[in-house]
Amino acid sequence: MDKIRIVLADDHVLVRDGIKSLLEEQPDMEVVDEASDGAEAIKILEKDLPDLLIVDIRMPEMNGIEVVRKIHENKWDLRTLVLSMHDSEEYVVQSVQAGADGYLLKGASKDEFLKALHKVASGGKYFAGDISAILINNFTDGKPSQKQKKKEDPFNLTKREKQILKLVLQGKSNKEIGKELEISKRTAEVHRFNLMKKLDVKNLIELTNKAREYQLA
Question: Per its UniProt record, what PROSITE patterns does this chain match (predicted)?
């Protein structure tokens, strides 16, 4: 059986090394090339198309969404899986609109990651549970809806971020949050980091005060 030929595009060497190490253990997968930014990824694809591109969103030169969009503009025959730390509604929707075949958070388990790769490589679509909820809320018959954002929330928090906020304000740890929401501790950490960054706060006291000020939870 032919192996699934994969190109990795991520500006963090440790991330690429970790993914490559995992994929090298799989008998039906092969990492044929790597890129440290979007422009380099495009150059690689222009020379030899793999079966699948795993691409990070936030990269220098050209971000992952722009890379996916370029692939579809050129009508290149390969599948694309966006792998990101961010479950931002904006990133998810833009990735799908650009033509991504899948979107997975970096906090995903090894089993889910491999499941996503096989699904996308075989011609299917794969979006993690949280991501699917965002897509359902934003798309109808494949077209973006004109959903109004709540005026009282100037930070545009996602449903998951609001869940995390509520649990953080209850004093729960990342491990406890992960257990309650049935996500990994690492995913809980990523959500918490993104939440603190969105609200521009540095500690629990500032977070609590801002949440109360804007009635976020």
Answer: HTH_LUXR_2, RESPONSE_REGULATORY
